[in-house]
Design brief:
about 80 residues, mainly alpha, 2 helices, about 80% helix
Length: about 80
């Protein structure tokens, strides 16, 4: 077991936050599709899943652009 000085709290916090976001998004998608399937039927659930996927793709695109901007600024020397 690592000693207290070997544990990087910031990295652990970022990793935990990342896991929680991924699990939360997966739960939202799965539960939303199941709920739509129960209430409106399977064809509506398919359309709902498609719309959720499109929305998540848009969010991922924005996050990717922001990550790219941060990478460019960091390499150009404009750190924080």
């Amino acid at each position: 077991m690592p000693t207290q000085s070997e544990i990087d709290i910031r990295r652990h916090s970022a990793q935990t936050r990342s896991r929680m976001v991924r699990i939360g998004l997966a739960l939202i998608v799965v539960l939303a599709v199941i709920l739509v399937a129960v209430v409106f039927g399977l064809p509506a659930a398919g359309v709902g899943a498609l719309c959720l996927a499109g929305g998540l793709l848009a969010i991922a695109a924005v996050a990717g652009v922001l990550w790219l901007i941060r990478l460019i600024l960091t390499r150009a020397g404009y750190d924080e």
